[in-house]
Amino acid sequence: xxxxxxxGQNKEPKLIQNESNKITKPIQFKFENENENENENExxxxxxxxxxxxxxxxxxxxxxxxxxxxxxxKQNPSKIQIKENIQKVTVGYFNEAVxxxxxxxxxxxxxxxxxxxxxxxxxxxxxxxxxDRVIQDIVSRxxxxxxxxxxxxxxxxxxxxxxxxxxxxxxxxxxxLNQELFGCGHNExxxxxxxxxIKETKIHKLTKIQNIPKGKIIxxxxxxxxxxxxxxxxxxxxxxxxxxxxxGDYRFNGFGKDTYEFTEIKSSLFENDDIIDFSVxxxxxxxxxxxxxxxxxxxxxxxxxxxxxxxxxxxxIQIELPKLRFNENISxxxxxxxxxxxxxxxxxxxxxxxxxxxxxLFERKEFxxxxxxxxxxxxxxxxxLILKYRLNQNQNQNQNQIEKLQEIISKKSIKESNQIFExxxxxxxxINPKLYYEIKEIINSNEKIEETIKRIYLNENENExDxxxxxxxxxxxxxxxxxxxxxxLYRGMFLSVTKDTxxxxxxxxxxxxKSFQIFExxxxxxxxxxxxxxxxxxxxxxxxxxxxxQLNQTNPNLFDLLINKFNN
Length: 568
Hints:
Elements: E1 4-9, E2 22-28, E3 45-50, E4 54-59, E5 64-68, E6 78-79, E7 86-91, E8 95-100, E9 105-109, E10 121-122, E11 135-141, E12 144-149, E13 154-158, E14 171-175, E15 181-186, E16 202-208, E17 216-222, E18 226-234, E19 240-248, E20 259-264, E21 275-280, E22 284-289, E23 294-298, E24 313-319, E25 333-337, E26 341-346, H1 353-362, E27 370-373, E28 379-382, H2 384-390, H3 401-409, H4 414-426, H5 433-439, H6 449-458, E29 466-471, E30 474-479, H7 480-485, H8 488-497, E31 504-505, H9 513-525, H10 536-549, H11 558-567
Parallel strand pairs: 29-31
Antiparallel strand pairs: 1-2, 1-26, 3-4, 4-5, 5-6, 7-8, 8-9, 9-10, 11-12, 12-13, 14-15, 15-16, 17-18, 18-19, 19-20, 21-22, 22-23, 23-24, 25-26, 27-28, 29-30
Helix pairs in contact: 1-4, 2-6, 10-11
């Protein structure tokens, strides 16, 4: 289930071999080794990041490939050789960095590792405080990289040519938990939004940005000479409404005139519509709306706006898109703008599939057995079993953490309450840091989702209904809740074969012990153990089981994982 649309410079690197050096209209992009018969789960894109240094494609299995812009085309693409699974990538003008699931950051570039700029080094290990080395987020700007730790401390590494490191052609913003915005760096064109009265072209220290538009800042991104901000308010029906604000150089800010404070970009293109995503390139911006409109403005010499020509666009213009494969899920599309190219790609969620399944389970009312009431009296139904394991509880703890959670929810809106449950079910603390810090003391946030699921699985004292799978005189116990959440197919399969009250399932008798263990581990982690040796016999056997149970719709596909491990 993959779709990537590309336009812009197609020369360094040459992404699509049989196309011109400038692709001015959006076209479908496929990797060279991809074909029509290839399983769609083979290349599940999670994120694309592009800038002068390189283009990185991150896949949902935690692996990534890069196209280095100055490399010989025969060397592109190349795998990023990091032993840990990657959860986010970022590319700057002269560097790139990857954030791993373990919270480490590996980076390379001339300003990061001058002796060997093409070798990744662990830059998070350079933080002096060893207790502050778990990284939560990363961003690359020109010659610098910024790290945000789980303790909400920010660090910078690299060049300070334009004061962008904030200690004394680039600017940087920091947004704190109180929605206060600070900026520093290059300000020649007013791109920091400090106001026309500020004449300094270089702001040496983090400075608070005044006159911020009313509302919640959802995101802010910087080009070289302009900045774009996404702000959310409520409309007259109390529904969330997002608007785009801009400041900086008239050629790139969407106004056609210089602006020195963040000002709303008003256009008929945004009327009766909402903003799904936006991305700011070096000198251009693209915006995606809920009505499938792609809107752009700015620099266009290489066709990176996708308008069919190479003319500058001083004000917003709609770009004609090819028919999207998954247009019913437009909110799952994302944009990535680089220096002279652009991508629109489909990526259903920032979570792993196991976390997606947990969130989907949250919506299954037949499995909800505990009620929470919000400040406005709305009812949220949740899962007592999941909460029991996801909240910090132990035998020595007197106060019930579920009661604490109920107290917090009672003071929140329905939207905030749903975000809290999403955090609990996904370990994603980036959704709303302020909410996260309210509940982090009661969430078992250091435990991975798969570890929680394994604890539920191994707890034989739990009085939840289980499926007992009998195999060669041995019984396997699977919590019914977990199996059913993993996909619609599990639900149909297990409920159809389980007719009696014993909850016994015997259809796995065809799998050998080793194959069954692989299948079992995959259910709870979406992974295959590193130490497992995959043989052709195992692949053939599991393929029969996959076909029998129609498991090919799950994500990631078990068979694909087996093949990848076998080939590597």
